[in-house]
Amino acid sequence: MRPEFTTKSLDYSQLxxxxxxxxxxxxxLVTSGGSWDITNxxxxxxxxxxAPPHAILYSGVGIALLGFVLLFASWQKSGKPSQYSRGIKxxxxxxxxxxxxxxxxxxxxxxxxxxxxxxxxxxVLIAGMGLxxxxxxxxxxxxxxxxxxxxxxxxxxxxxxxxxxxTGLFYSFSLPFSKxxxxxxxxxxxxxxGFAAVTYPFLITVILTSSAILSKNxxxxxxxxxxxxxxxxxxxxxxxxxxxxxxxxxxxxxIIPIILGDYVLSKSKTSxxxxxxxxxxxxxxxxxxxxxxxxxxxxxxxxxxxxxxxTSQIYFELVPLVAPFxxxxxxxxxxxxxRFAQKITS
Amino acid sequence: xxxxxxLNFAVFPQTYQDVPVAAPQPSIEVTLSTSQIRLGESxxxxxxxxxxxxxxxxxxxxxxxxxxxxxDNIQIKSYDFLQSPKLFLPxxxxxxxxxxxxxxxxxxxxxxxxxxxxxxxxxxxxxxxxITPTQTGVFTVYSKTVAMPHINNxxxxxxxxxxxxxxxxxxxxxxxxxx
Lengths: 346, 179
What we know:
Chain A is mainly α.
Protein backbone atom coordinates (compact mmCIF):
# COMPACT_ATOMS: atom_id res chain seq x y z
CA MET A 1 0.00 0.00 0.00
CA ARG A 2 1.44 3.40 -0.94
CA PRO A 3 1.77 5.88 1.92
CA GLU A 4 -0.50 8.82 1.80
CA PHE A 5 0.93 12.30 2.21
CA THR A 6 -1.10 15.16 3.38
CA THR A 7 0.19 18.51 2.32
CA LYS A 8 -0.53 21.62 4.25
CA SER A 9 0.01 24.76 2.21
CA LEU A 10 2.41 27.25 3.75
CA ASP A 11 0.81 30.32 5.23
CA TYR A 12 2.89 32.85 3.32
CA SER A 13 1.37 35.85 5.02
CA GLN A 14 2.45 34.40 8.38
CA LEU A 15 5.90 33.61 6.99
CA UNK A 16 6.10 37.19 5.71
CA UNK A 17 5.49 38.54 9.22
CA UNK A 18 8.05 36.20 10.76
CA UNK A 19 10.62 37.07 8.07
CA UNK A 20 10.02 40.76 8.64
CA UNK A 21 10.71 40.30 12.37
CA UNK A 22 13.82 38.23 11.60
CA UNK A 23 15.08 41.08 9.38
CA UNK A 24 14.58 43.56 12.24
CA UNK A 25 16.33 41.22 14.70
CA UNK A 26 19.26 41.03 12.27
CA UNK A 27 19.56 44.81 12.26
CA UNK A 28 19.29 44.90 16.07
CA LEU A 29 22.36 42.64 16.15
CA VAL A 30 24.15 44.80 13.56
CA THR A 31 23.52 47.99 15.52
CA SER A 32 24.29 46.42 18.91
CA GLY A 33 27.54 45.01 17.52
CA GLY A 34 28.26 48.45 16.08
CA SER A 35 27.65 50.12 19.45
CA TRP A 36 29.93 47.60 21.18
CA ASP A 37 32.52 48.13 18.45
CA ILE A 38 32.56 51.90 19.12
CA THR A 39 33.15 51.17 22.82
CA ASN A 40 35.85 48.67 21.90
CA UNK A 41 37.63 51.29 19.80
CA UNK A 42 37.45 53.79 22.66
CA UNK A 43 38.90 51.29 25.14
CA UNK A 44 41.66 49.87 23.00
CA UNK A 45 42.92 49.77 19.48
CA UNK A 46 41.78 46.52 17.91
CA UNK A 47 44.21 45.51 15.21
CA UNK A 48 42.33 42.53 13.92
CA UNK A 49 39.06 42.08 12.09
CA UNK A 50 38.24 39.08 14.30
CA ALA A 51 36.80 40.87 17.32
CA PRO A 52 33.63 39.79 19.20
CA PRO A 53 31.68 42.97 18.25
CA HIS A 54 32.42 42.27 14.58
CA ALA A 55 31.16 38.69 15.02
CA ILE A 56 27.82 39.99 16.34
CA LEU A 57 27.67 42.69 13.67
CA TYR A 58 28.25 40.33 10.76
CA SER A 59 25.98 37.63 12.24
CA GLY A 60 23.33 40.33 12.22
CA VAL A 61 23.99 41.05 8.55
CA GLY A 62 23.58 37.32 7.83
CA ILE A 63 20.33 37.11 9.80
CA ALA A 64 18.97 40.26 8.12
CA LEU A 65 19.88 38.81 4.73
CA LEU A 66 18.15 35.51 5.58
CA GLY A 67 15.10 37.45 6.76
CA PHE A 68 15.09 39.47 3.56
CA VAL A 69 15.26 36.36 1.32
CA LEU A 70 12.33 34.77 3.19
CA LEU A 71 10.48 38.07 3.20
CA PHE A 72 10.87 38.61 -0.52
CA ALA A 73 9.97 34.99 -1.38
CA SER A 74 6.88 35.00 0.84
CA TRP A 75 5.81 38.36 -0.56
CA GLN A 76 6.02 37.01 -4.10
CA LYS A 77 4.29 33.72 -3.20
CA SER A 78 1.45 35.56 -1.53
CA GLY A 79 0.70 37.56 -4.68
CA LYS A 80 2.81 40.67 -3.98
CA PRO A 81 0.28 42.43 -1.74
CA SER A 82 0.51 46.13 -2.57
CA GLN A 83 0.42 47.35 1.04
CA TYR A 84 3.91 45.89 1.55
CA SER A 85 5.42 47.10 -1.74
CA ARG A 86 6.92 50.24 -0.22
CA GLY A 87 8.44 48.33 2.72
CA ILE A 88 9.89 45.69 0.41
CA LYS A 89 11.45 48.33 -1.85
CA UNK A 90 13.05 50.16 1.08
CA UNK A 91 14.38 46.91 2.58
CA UNK A 92 15.79 45.85 -0.81
CA UNK A 93 17.79 49.09 -1.10
CA UNK A 94 18.85 48.72 2.55
CA UNK A 95 20.08 45.15 2.16
CA UNK A 96 21.90 46.09 -1.07
CA UNK A 97 23.65 48.91 0.83
CA UNK A 98 24.54 46.55 3.70
CA UNK A 99 26.08 44.08 1.28
CA UNK A 100 27.90 46.82 -0.63
CA UNK A 101 29.32 48.29 2.58
CA UNK A 102 31.63 45.29 3.16
CA UNK A 103 33.65 45.57 -0.10
CA UNK A 104 33.65 49.38 0.08
CA UNK A 105 34.99 49.14 3.64
CA UNK A 106 37.67 46.68 2.51
CA UNK A 107 38.79 48.99 -0.32
CA UNK A 108 38.81 51.98 2.03
CA UNK A 109 40.88 50.12 4.66
CA UNK A 110 43.29 48.89 1.98
CA UNK A 111 43.79 52.42 0.67
CA UNK A 112 43.66 54.57 3.78
CA UNK A 113 44.20 52.18 6.73
CA UNK A 114 42.13 52.61 9.86
CA UNK A 115 38.95 54.62 9.33
CA UNK A 116 37.04 56.84 11.73
CA UNK A 117 33.37 56.80 12.68
CA UNK A 118 32.37 59.10 9.85
CA UNK A 119 33.63 57.64 6.60
CA UNK A 120 32.05 56.80 3.23
CA UNK A 121 31.93 53.02 3.91
CA UNK A 122 30.40 53.59 7.35
CA UNK A 123 27.78 55.90 5.84
CA VAL A 124 26.86 53.18 3.35
CA LEU A 125 26.62 50.69 6.24
CA ILE A 126 24.49 53.04 8.34
CA ALA A 127 22.26 53.79 5.34
CA GLY A 128 21.83 50.04 4.88
CA MET A 129 20.91 49.52 8.55
CA GLY A 130 18.56 52.49 8.55
CA LEU A 131 16.74 51.67 5.32
CA UNK A 132 16.36 47.98 6.17
CA UNK A 133 14.93 48.74 9.59
CA UNK A 134 12.67 51.52 8.28
CA UNK A 135 11.38 49.20 5.54
CA UNK A 136 10.62 46.52 8.14
CA UNK A 137 8.86 49.13 10.28
CA UNK A 138 6.78 50.23 7.27
CA UNK A 139 5.66 46.61 6.89
CA UNK A 140 4.77 46.43 10.59
CA UNK A 141 2.70 49.58 10.20
CA UNK A 142 0.84 47.85 7.36
CA UNK A 143 0.27 44.69 9.49
CA UNK A 144 -1.10 46.76 12.32
CA UNK A 145 -3.79 48.27 10.10
CA UNK A 146 -5.26 44.77 9.87
CA UNK A 147 -5.53 44.18 13.60
CA UNK A 148 -7.29 45.72 16.56
CA UNK A 149 -4.83 44.33 19.08
CA UNK A 150 -1.31 45.29 18.01
CA UNK A 151 1.47 42.87 18.92
CA UNK A 152 3.82 44.67 21.30
CA UNK A 153 6.74 42.38 20.62
CA UNK A 154 6.60 43.16 16.90
CA UNK A 155 6.47 46.91 17.57
CA UNK A 156 9.42 46.80 19.97
CA UNK A 157 11.53 44.64 17.64
CA UNK A 158 10.85 46.90 14.66
CA UNK A 159 11.39 50.19 16.54
CA UNK A 160 14.71 49.38 18.23
CA UNK A 161 16.77 48.94 15.04
CA UNK A 162 15.37 52.19 13.62
CA UNK A 163 16.35 54.00 16.84
CA UNK A 164 19.87 52.57 16.84
CA UNK A 165 20.48 53.02 13.12
CA UNK A 166 19.49 56.68 13.12
CA THR A 167 21.43 57.18 16.35
CA GLY A 168 24.45 55.77 14.51
CA LEU A 169 23.95 58.35 11.77
CA PHE A 170 23.61 61.16 14.31
CA TYR A 171 26.69 59.93 16.23
CA SER A 172 28.69 60.29 13.01
CA PHE A 173 27.96 64.01 12.92
CA SER A 174 28.29 64.72 16.63
CA LEU A 175 31.16 62.62 18.01
CA PRO A 176 34.84 63.49 17.53
CA PHE A 177 35.84 59.99 16.46
CA SER A 178 36.56 60.63 12.79
CA LYS A 179 40.12 61.91 12.60
CA UNK A 180 42.58 59.52 10.97
CA UNK A 181 46.05 59.78 9.46
CA UNK A 182 44.52 60.60 6.06
CA UNK A 183 41.33 62.52 6.80
CA UNK A 184 39.90 64.71 9.49
CA UNK A 185 36.14 64.21 9.26
CA UNK A 186 35.56 65.28 12.86
CA UNK A 187 32.58 67.63 13.03
CA UNK A 188 33.16 71.19 14.19
CA UNK A 189 32.62 71.02 18.00
CA UNK A 190 29.99 73.79 18.02
CA UNK A 191 28.14 72.20 15.13
CA UNK A 192 28.31 68.81 16.87
CA UNK A 193 26.88 70.23 20.10
CA GLY A 194 24.05 72.00 18.27
CA PHE A 195 23.36 69.01 16.06
CA ALA A 196 23.10 66.69 19.09
CA ALA A 197 20.84 69.15 20.92
CA VAL A 198 18.42 69.19 18.00
CA THR A 199 18.47 65.65 16.64
CA TYR A 200 18.80 63.39 19.70
CA PRO A 201 15.69 64.60 21.57
CA PHE A 202 13.73 64.69 18.32
CA LEU A 203 14.66 61.08 17.58
CA ILE A 204 13.89 59.82 21.10
CA THR A 205 10.46 61.42 20.98
CA VAL A 206 9.63 60.20 17.49
CA ILE A 207 10.56 56.63 18.38
CA LEU A 208 8.79 56.45 21.74
CA THR A 209 5.69 58.36 20.66
CA SER A 210 5.38 56.35 17.43
CA SER A 211 5.66 53.13 19.47
CA ALA A 212 2.79 54.26 21.67
CA ILE A 213 0.64 55.39 18.74
CA LEU A 214 1.22 52.17 16.79
CA SER A 215 0.09 50.18 19.82
CA LYS A 216 -3.04 52.36 19.94
CA ASN A 217 -1.72 54.20 22.99
CA UNK A 218 -1.67 51.08 25.12
CA UNK A 219 0.47 51.73 28.16
CA UNK A 220 3.68 49.72 28.19
CA UNK A 221 4.83 49.63 24.57
CA UNK A 222 6.89 52.83 24.64
CA UNK A 223 8.26 51.72 28.03
CA UNK A 224 9.31 48.37 26.56
CA UNK A 225 11.03 50.12 23.64
CA UNK A 226 12.80 52.47 26.08
CA UNK A 227 13.77 49.61 28.39
CA UNK A 228 15.17 47.65 25.44
CA UNK A 229 17.20 50.67 24.36
CA UNK A 230 18.57 51.14 27.87
CA UNK A 231 19.35 47.44 28.13
CA UNK A 232 21.25 47.28 24.85
CA UNK A 233 23.18 50.46 25.65
CA UNK A 234 24.05 49.12 29.10
CA UNK A 235 25.37 45.91 27.55
CA UNK A 236 27.21 47.50 24.62
CA UNK A 237 28.41 50.90 25.86
CA UNK A 238 28.63 50.74 29.67
CA UNK A 239 29.50 47.22 30.83
CA UNK A 240 32.46 46.80 28.40
CA UNK A 241 34.10 49.82 30.06
CA UNK A 242 34.58 48.52 33.61
CA UNK A 243 35.08 52.04 34.97
CA UNK A 244 31.46 52.86 34.08
CA UNK A 245 29.81 49.83 35.67
CA UNK A 246 29.11 51.63 38.94
CA UNK A 247 27.04 54.20 36.98
CA UNK A 248 24.51 51.62 35.77
CA UNK A 249 21.93 52.64 38.44
CA UNK A 250 22.11 56.22 37.14
CA UNK A 251 21.65 55.06 33.56
CA UNK A 252 18.78 52.68 34.31
CA UNK A 253 16.98 55.45 36.23
CA UNK A 254 16.23 56.86 32.77
CA ILE A 255 13.35 54.41 32.63
CA ILE A 256 11.47 56.77 34.99
CA PRO A 257 10.74 59.56 32.44
CA ILE A 258 10.09 56.95 29.74
CA ILE A 259 7.43 55.24 31.84
CA LEU A 260 5.99 58.60 32.83
CA GLY A 261 5.79 59.80 29.21
CA ASP A 262 4.28 56.48 28.20
CA TYR A 263 1.65 56.82 30.94
CA VAL A 264 0.80 60.37 29.82
CA LEU A 265 0.41 59.14 26.24
CA SER A 266 -1.82 56.27 27.32
CA LYS A 267 -4.13 58.70 29.14
CA SER A 268 -3.89 61.52 26.61
CA LYS A 269 -7.18 62.97 25.52
CA THR A 270 -5.89 66.21 24.07
CA SER A 271 -2.94 67.23 21.91
CA UNK A 272 -1.55 69.10 24.94
CA UNK A 273 -1.11 65.80 26.77
CA UNK A 274 0.68 64.32 23.78
CA UNK A 275 2.96 67.36 23.62
CA UNK A 276 3.66 66.97 27.32
CA UNK A 277 4.78 63.38 26.77
CA UNK A 278 7.05 64.53 23.93
CA UNK A 279 8.51 67.22 26.15
CA UNK A 280 9.25 64.64 28.84
CA UNK A 281 10.96 62.29 26.37
CA UNK A 282 12.99 65.03 24.68
CA UNK A 283 14.10 66.75 27.86
CA UNK A 284 16.09 63.76 29.12
CA UNK A 285 18.24 63.16 26.02
CA UNK A 286 21.47 64.24 27.74
CA UNK A 287 20.96 61.44 30.28
CA UNK A 288 19.74 58.85 27.76
CA UNK A 289 22.75 59.34 25.50
CA UNK A 290 25.27 58.72 28.28
CA UNK A 291 28.17 57.91 28.03
CA UNK A 292 29.10 58.92 24.45
CA UNK A 293 27.46 62.35 24.64
CA UNK A 294 30.23 63.30 27.09
CA UNK A 295 32.62 63.57 24.15
CA UNK A 296 30.31 66.02 22.33
CA UNK A 297 29.75 68.47 25.19
CA UNK A 298 33.22 68.17 26.75
CA UNK A 299 34.65 69.61 23.52
CA UNK A 300 32.66 72.84 23.77
CA UNK A 301 32.91 73.33 27.54
CA UNK A 302 35.65 71.76 29.65
CA UNK A 303 37.73 70.53 26.71
CA UNK A 304 39.46 67.98 28.92
CA UNK A 305 41.46 65.13 27.50
CA UNK A 306 38.98 62.26 27.36
CA UNK A 307 40.14 58.89 28.61
CA UNK A 308 37.75 55.97 29.04
CA UNK A 309 38.38 55.86 32.79
CA UNK A 310 37.57 59.57 33.13
CA THR A 311 34.31 59.47 31.15
CA SER A 312 31.91 59.36 34.09
CA GLN A 313 33.87 62.00 36.05
CA ILE A 314 33.75 64.42 33.12
CA TYR A 315 30.13 63.56 32.33
CA PHE A 316 28.93 64.40 35.84
CA GLU A 317 31.11 67.49 35.92
CA LEU A 318 29.26 68.62 32.79
CA VAL A 319 25.79 68.04 34.28
CA PRO A 320 25.40 71.44 35.99
CA LEU A 321 27.08 73.20 33.07
CA VAL A 322 25.06 71.89 30.14
CA ALA A 323 22.11 69.81 31.34
CA PRO A 324 19.82 72.74 32.34
CA PHE A 325 20.06 74.19 28.83
CA UNK A 326 19.78 70.81 27.15
CA UNK A 327 16.68 69.90 29.17
CA UNK A 328 14.95 73.02 27.85
CA UNK A 329 16.08 72.64 24.23
CA UNK A 330 15.37 68.91 24.39
CA UNK A 331 11.86 69.59 25.67
CA UNK A 332 11.17 71.92 22.75
CA UNK A 333 12.52 69.42 20.23
CA UNK A 334 10.48 66.70 21.94
CA UNK A 335 7.29 68.71 21.40
CA UNK A 336 8.17 69.02 17.71
CA UNK A 337 9.04 65.34 17.57
CA UNK A 338 5.54 64.44 18.72
CA ARG A 339 4.04 66.25 15.72
CA PHE A 340 6.35 64.36 13.39
CA ALA A 341 5.52 61.03 15.07
CA GLN A 342 1.80 61.71 14.67
CA LYS A 343 2.33 62.48 11.00
CA ILE A 344 4.31 59.36 10.13
CA THR A 345 2.05 57.01 12.06
CA SER A 346 -1.23 58.43 10.81
CA UNK B 1 10.06 64.08 37.07
CA UNK B 2 11.08 66.18 40.06
CA UNK B 3 12.54 63.15 41.80
CA UNK B 4 14.28 62.09 38.60
CA UNK B 5 15.92 65.48 38.08
CA UNK B 6 16.83 65.67 41.77
CA LEU B 7 18.62 62.34 41.41
CA ASN B 8 20.42 63.47 38.27
CA PHE B 9 21.46 66.89 39.53
CA ALA B 10 22.13 66.25 43.20
CA VAL B 11 22.54 62.59 44.07
CA PHE B 12 24.28 60.88 41.16
CA PRO B 13 26.89 63.56 40.30
CA GLN B 14 27.89 63.82 43.96
CA THR B 15 28.09 60.05 44.32
CA TYR B 16 30.08 59.39 41.16
CA GLN B 17 32.46 62.32 41.33
CA ASP B 18 33.62 61.15 44.76
CA VAL B 19 34.80 57.84 43.29
CA PRO B 20 38.61 58.02 43.10
CA VAL B 21 40.16 57.71 39.66
CA ALA B 22 42.34 54.64 39.19
CA ALA B 23 46.01 55.55 39.61
CA PRO B 24 48.45 53.51 37.52
CA GLN B 25 52.09 53.14 38.52
CA PRO B 26 54.23 51.99 35.61
CA SER B 27 57.88 51.07 35.76
CA ILE B 28 60.56 49.73 33.41
CA GLU B 29 63.66 47.60 33.66
CA VAL B 30 66.30 47.94 30.98
CA THR B 31 69.22 45.64 30.28
CA LEU B 32 71.99 46.08 27.73
CA SER B 33 73.73 43.03 26.28
CA THR B 34 77.12 44.78 26.58
CA SER B 35 78.63 48.09 27.53
CA GLN B 36 81.28 48.16 24.81
CA ILE B 37 81.27 47.06 21.17
CA ARG B 38 83.40 47.55 18.07
CA LEU B 39 82.10 49.72 15.24
CA GLY B 40 79.94 47.57 12.97
CA GLU B 41 78.87 45.26 15.78
CA SER B 42 75.42 45.27 17.38
CA UNK B 43 74.17 45.23 20.92
CA UNK B 44 70.75 44.36 22.31
CA UNK B 45 68.57 46.46 24.55
CA UNK B 46 65.79 44.64 26.40
CA UNK B 47 63.09 46.62 28.11
CA UNK B 48 60.42 45.11 30.35
CA UNK B 49 57.53 47.07 31.79
CA UNK B 50 54.98 46.41 34.48
CA UNK B 51 52.11 48.43 35.89
CA UNK B 52 52.22 48.19 39.67
CA UNK B 53 49.23 50.46 40.24
CA UNK B 54 45.69 50.29 38.93
CA UNK B 55 44.64 49.75 35.33
CA UNK B 56 45.67 52.49 32.92
CA UNK B 57 43.80 53.34 29.75
CA UNK B 58 47.12 53.53 27.93
CA UNK B 59 50.75 52.89 28.77
CA UNK B 60 53.57 53.80 26.45
CA UNK B 61 57.15 52.59 26.65
CA UNK B 62 59.55 54.74 24.68
CA UNK B 63 63.09 54.03 23.54
CA UNK B 64 64.79 57.11 22.10
CA UNK B 65 67.94 57.55 20.07
CA UNK B 66 69.13 61.15 20.54
CA UNK B 67 72.02 60.66 18.06
CA UNK B 68 69.81 59.15 15.34
CA UNK B 69 68.01 60.92 12.53
CA UNK B 70 66.47 57.64 11.39
CA UNK B 71 65.82 54.10 12.62
CA ASP B 72 67.74 52.29 9.89
CA ASN B 73 70.21 50.77 12.34
CA ILE B 74 67.53 49.56 14.79
CA GLN B 75 65.74 46.21 14.56
CA ILE B 76 62.92 45.01 16.77
CA LYS B 77 63.91 41.44 17.67
CA SER B 78 60.99 40.65 19.98
CA TYR B 79 57.82 42.43 21.01
CA ASP B 80 54.83 41.33 23.10
CA PHE B 81 52.90 44.53 23.78
CA LEU B 82 49.18 44.59 22.97
CA GLN B 83 49.42 47.03 20.07
CA SER B 84 51.96 47.39 17.28
CA PRO B 85 54.85 49.80 17.92
CA LYS B 86 54.89 53.30 16.48
CA LEU B 87 58.07 54.58 14.87
CA PHE B 88 58.87 58.29 14.99
CA LEU B 89 61.41 60.29 12.99
CA PRO B 90 62.62 63.87 13.56
CA UNK B 91 60.24 66.78 12.85
CA UNK B 92 57.06 64.85 13.62
CA UNK B 93 54.34 66.26 15.88
CA UNK B 94 54.60 64.68 19.33
CA UNK B 95 52.99 65.28 22.72
CA UNK B 96 54.85 66.85 25.62
CA UNK B 97 54.70 67.25 29.39
CA UNK B 98 52.70 64.09 30.06
CA UNK B 99 49.57 65.76 28.61
CA UNK B 100 48.63 62.95 26.25
CA UNK B 101 48.94 65.15 23.19
CA UNK B 102 47.23 68.28 24.49
CA UNK B 103 50.51 70.17 24.19
CA UNK B 104 52.71 69.32 21.25
CA UNK B 105 56.17 69.94 19.84
CA UNK B 106 58.33 68.63 17.00
CA UNK B 107 60.47 65.57 17.57
CA UNK B 108 64.21 66.23 17.46
CA UNK B 109 65.39 62.65 16.97
CA UNK B 110 64.10 59.15 16.28
CA UNK B 111 62.31 56.95 18.77
CA UNK B 112 60.19 53.84 19.08
CA UNK B 113 57.01 53.77 21.13
CA UNK B 114 55.56 50.48 22.34
CA UNK B 115 52.15 50.58 23.89
CA UNK B 116 49.42 48.73 25.71
CA UNK B 117 45.84 49.89 25.56
CA UNK B 118 44.63 49.18 28.20
CA UNK B 119 47.51 48.44 30.59
CA UNK B 120 46.34 45.95 33.16
CA UNK B 121 48.14 45.79 36.51
CA UNK B 122 50.65 43.09 37.29
CA UNK B 123 51.38 42.02 33.72
CA UNK B 124 54.87 42.27 32.21
CA UNK B 125 55.48 43.20 28.58
CA UNK B 126 58.86 43.27 26.85
CA UNK B 127 60.60 44.46 23.74
CA UNK B 128 64.13 43.68 22.57
CA UNK B 129 65.93 45.92 20.10
CA UNK B 130 69.07 45.15 18.16
CA ILE B 131 71.03 48.32 17.69
CA THR B 132 74.02 48.84 15.39
CA PRO B 133 75.73 52.19 16.00
CA THR B 134 77.21 53.85 12.94
CA GLN B 135 79.85 56.00 14.65
CA THR B 136 82.52 55.49 17.24
CA GLY B 137 82.21 57.14 20.61
CA VAL B 138 79.50 56.98 23.25
CA PHE B 139 76.15 55.79 21.88
CA THR B 140 73.26 57.02 24.02
CA VAL B 141 69.79 55.55 24.38
CA TYR B 142 66.92 57.00 26.46
CA SER B 143 63.99 55.05 27.87
CA LYS B 144 60.82 55.91 29.78
CA THR B 145 57.24 54.83 30.37
CA VAL B 146 54.10 56.93 30.77
CA ALA B 147 50.61 55.82 31.83
CA MET B 148 47.43 57.63 30.85
CA PRO B 149 45.41 59.22 32.24
CA HIS B 150 48.35 60.92 33.95
CA ILE B 151 46.96 61.15 37.47
CA ASN B 152 50.05 62.07 39.46
CA ASN B 153 53.86 61.83 39.43
CA UNK B 154 53.69 58.07 39.86
CA UNK B 155 52.00 57.83 36.45
CA UNK B 156 55.39 58.05 34.77
CA UNK B 157 58.81 56.46 35.19
CA UNK B 158 61.49 57.54 35.86
CA UNK B 159 60.40 60.10 38.39
CA UNK B 160 63.40 62.35 37.72
CA UNK B 161 66.62 62.47 35.72
CA UNK B 162 67.45 63.61 32.21
CA UNK B 163 64.78 65.55 30.28
CA UNK B 164 64.05 64.51 26.68
CA UNK B 165 62.58 66.39 23.69
CA UNK B 166 59.08 65.81 25.07
CA UNK B 167 60.07 67.56 28.29
CA UNK B 168 59.66 64.29 30.16
CA UNK B 169 62.06 62.34 32.37
CA UNK B 170 64.10 59.51 30.86
CA UNK B 171 66.65 56.91 31.93
CA UNK B 172 69.95 57.25 30.09
CA UNK B 173 71.91 54.22 28.85
CA UNK B 174 75.25 54.31 27.09
CA UNK B 175 77.39 51.89 25.11
CA UNK B 176 80.94 52.71 24.13
CA UNK B 177 81.65 52.10 20.45
CA UNK B 178 85.35 51.59 19.76
CA UNK B 179 87.04 51.53 16.33
